[in-house]
C-alpha cells in the first residue's frame, strides 16, 4: 500500500477531495488457539480478583505456547501483546474496589439482617408509635486527611507525568464519628484531633465536638467516654428518650466488654452490620461521606494558600478541616431524609447483592 501511495503521490496531492478516512481493522490473530487460551486464563484470574500486569500475560503466553506446541517463532513480544489486547478488548484499568470478595451466603445474610431491622422497627412502633424514629440511630466513623487530592484529573493527552501537588500531609488525619436518628436529627459530629494541646484561640462550631487525642483513633474507651457519654446520651436526655436502637458496623472497637456493659446499663440496643457488607448496608457509606473530598479540592483551587519557609504549599490545617466537617454536616439536611426510610434503603441495597453475585 505504501508503494502505491508513493507512486500516486502527485495525484493524491492534487485531489485532496478524493481522500477519505479508512478504518483500520484488526487482523485475525496468527495464533488463534494460543490467544483464545490466554484470554480464558485472563478471565479466570480476573474473576478471582487477581491483578495482572503485562509481563505476566506475556509469560503465561509462553507457557501456553509450550503446552500446546505452538509455532517456535512466537515470542510473546510487546508488539504481539498490544495487538492481543486490542483484539480482545482488554485495557489497563485503575483498580476501583479492593478487599475480600463478598461471602457466598451474602444474599441470605443481607436478607436476615433486613428482617431483624424490620423486627426492631416493629417493636419500637408498638411501644412508642410514631415517635419510634427518634429512637432509631445510625452511626459510622471515617478518617479525613489533611491532603485529599483526587486520583483523576484532566491533562493534555500524552503527558507522561501527571502530578498532583499536595502539602505533604497525606498521612495526617482526623477521625470523625457521624450519627443521626431516623427522623433526620443529626447529633454533633465527634472529631478526634491528633494533638495533646488544644488549638490556640479556636472555638469549635456548635455542631461538632472536638476531642484532642494523640492517636486520633476510635477505641472502645474513646467510643464509650466520648461518643456515648458526651454525644449520644446527652441527645437522648434532651429528647426524653429512655431506650434506643443503634446500628453500626462490626469494627473490633464496637465489640468489647466496655461497650456491652455501657449499652446494657443504658438500654441501648446494638445492631451490628454483618462483616464485609458495610458497602451494601451502611447508609453513611452510601450518602454521608461522598462529598468530604470535594471541600479539599475546592480549597486547593479557589481558597487562600500560604507557603512554608521552604516555599512549599502549607496544609489547610486542622481548623479549616474542622470547619469543613461542620459545614458538611450542617448541609446534610436533604440527605438526612434518606435516613427516615432506613429499612427501605436496606431493601434497595439487597439488589446490589444480586449484581455482585452475578
A few lines on this structure:
It comes from Brachionus calyciflorus. With 358 residues, this protein is an alpha/beta fold.
What's the structural blueprint in terms of helices and strands?
Elements: H1 2-7, H2 9-14, H3 32-47, H4 54-68, H5 78-87, H6 106-128, E1 136-145, E2 173-181, E3 189-193, E4 208-212, H7 220-238, E5 244-248, H8 257-265, E6 268-272, H9 278-281, H10 283-288, H11 292-302, H12 317-330, H13 333-339, H14 342-357
Q: What shape does the CA trace take? A: elongated
The assembly state of the depicted protein chains is single chain
N-to-C terminal Cα separation, in Å? 47 Å
Low-confidence stretches: 337-358
- Compute the number of strand runs: 6
Whole-angstrom Rg: 29 Å
Number of structurally distinct domains: 2
Order of strands in the sheet with the most strands?
4-3-2-1-5-6
Major pleated sheet: 6 strands, mixed
The helix/strand class is alpha/beta
Q: By CATH's scheme, which homologous superfamily of the largest domain applies?
A: Ribonuclease H-like superfamily/Ribonuclease H
> What fraction strand?
5-15%
Q: Count of helical segments? A: 14
- Residue-averaged pLDDT: 78
User: Could you say what the CATH architecture of the largest domain is?
Assistant: 2-Layer Sandwich
Question: What is the CATH topology classification name of the largest domain?
Answer: Nucleotidyltransferase, domain 5
GO molecular function, one term: DNA binding
InterPro entries: CenT-Element_Derived, DDE_SF_endonuclease_dom, Homeodomain-like_sf, HTH_CenpB_DNA-bd_dom, RNaseH_sf
Keywords: DNA-binding
Domain HTH CENPB-type: 22-94
